[in-house]
Amino acid sequence: MFLSEVSRDSIVKAVSGLDVKDSEMVMILIGEDSIPDIEGLICDLNEKDICFFGGIFPGVIHGELKSAKGAIIRKMPGIEKPAVVNINDPDCIKIPDFTESLNLKSDKKYTAIILIDGMAPNIGLFLSEMLNRLGDSVNYFGGGAGYQSMKKDMCLFLSEGFINDAAIVVLVNIESCLGVRHGWKKMMGPLVATRTDRNLISEFNWENAFEVYREAVEKDSGRKFSDNDFYDIAKEYPLGLFREGCENIGRATVALTADGDIVCGGEVQGNAVVDILGGKKESLIKAAQMAAEDCRVPPGRKICHCLVFDCVSRALLLENEYSEELKAISRGLQLADNGEIPEGALTLGEISSLGERYLEYLNLTTVVTVLYE
């Protein structure tokens, strides 16, 4: 459900109209330009004894519409109530033990939805701990909440309150299929990130990282960083972390520190093998359609939801052509006869399973998920 006029009262009214049962919960995604009284909203939904979770995002997606205003509201069948994991302190990341609840169910592969503060530290460590706890017993998908300006502020909410520096983990009693693509192509590499600090890269191949990056990008683009804002050029030249058997993991190059370190949109481990990527708008749009096409539901199963978490960087790069990406996703899903409309959010990083080996925090990527019974 897409709500164009967002207020505390309009959300409560919309959620109340869903007839939420004890075994169900509601996901609420809100565009950053229409944030209501969140504390009041939490109180109202708690008074109605409705289980809910959600976040503030740079934008929401409804079919072929992208807007910084509005809200997406979806009712889900739950396995457990949403869990909060504080990820601010790497020594205090405690993943709840969901295994008993999962073991009580059938041998179906259920789904874990993860909403995370996109500006929080230790996201990679948290996802590693999640994978260690649950392994491949579930499919994972989700995205980073927050603001396009990348200001650090409260961006996640559930019955416990309005929070940040945390993740919300929700197990839902429903199966899913995933599509994960970005469409960026190798422009230069491989390079070795020989000195890093979480999301900062200081050296490639024991040389100053920015000098290596600048030389390659200026040669390809014909533009100079000295004449432009860093991100105006860098948004077209992200990095890719090598992963065997799948597309490189995208890392947005979002800023340059005073010391000349490259600031990435996610962690980069020391000695990671990295490519400098480039891409045409056509290849990004095609990749989004392919992500949708990868979501193939087994015959005879009922589609319940189609959710899209798409990196806000793609919308910024594609600008007026971003609607073409959303149209491509709709084409790839081929849901016209089903009546299901893809909905979701623009995110500060995306989360998805990649096969059975990885649970990754992605940048610059389209994640499409079809949930079915």
Task: Give your account of this protein's structure.
- Helix 1 (8-16) runs parallel beside helix 2.
- The two termini are 19 Å apart.
- The chain has 2 domains: 2-181 and 284-372, no CATH class; 185-278, no CATH class.
- The chain is an alpha+beta fold.
- Helices cover 23% and strands 38% of the residues.
- It has helices at residues 8-16, 38-47, 99-103, 123-134, 209-221, 230-234, 281-293, 312-318, 322-333, and strands at residues 2-3, 24-31, 52-57, 59-62, 65-67, 71-77, 83-86, 110-117, 138-145, 156-158, 161-163, 166-172, 175-181, 185-193, 195-197, 200-204, 207-208, 239-241, 249-251, 253-256, 262-264, 272-278, 303-311, 343-347, 350-354, 358-362, 366-372.
- The strands form 5 sheets. A 6-stranded mixed β-sheet has the order 1-6-2-3-10-11. Strands 5-4-24-23-27-13 form a 6-stranded mixed β-sheet. Strands 7-12-8-9-25-26 form a 6-stranded mixed β-sheet, covered by helices on one side.
Write the layout of secondary structure elements.
Layout: E1 2-3, H1 8-16, E2 24-31, H2 38-47, E3 52-57, E4 59-62, E5 65-67, E6 71-77, E7 83-86, H3 99-103, E8 110-117, H4 123-134, E9 138-145, E10 156-158, E11 161-163, E12 166-172, E13 175-181, E14 185-193, E15 195-197, E16 200-204, E17 207-208, H5 209-221, H6 230-234, E18 239-241, E19 249-251, E20 253-256, E21 262-264, E22 272-278, H7 281-293, E23 303-311, H8 312-318, H9 322-333, E24 343-347, E25 350-354, E26 358-362, E27 366-372
Parallel strand pairs: 2-3, 8-9, 23-24
Antiparallel strand pairs: 1-6, 2-6, 3-10, 4-5, 4-24, 7-12, 8-12, 9-25, 10-11, 13-27, 14-22, 15-16, 16-17, 16-21, 18-19, 18-22, 20-21, 23-27, 25-26
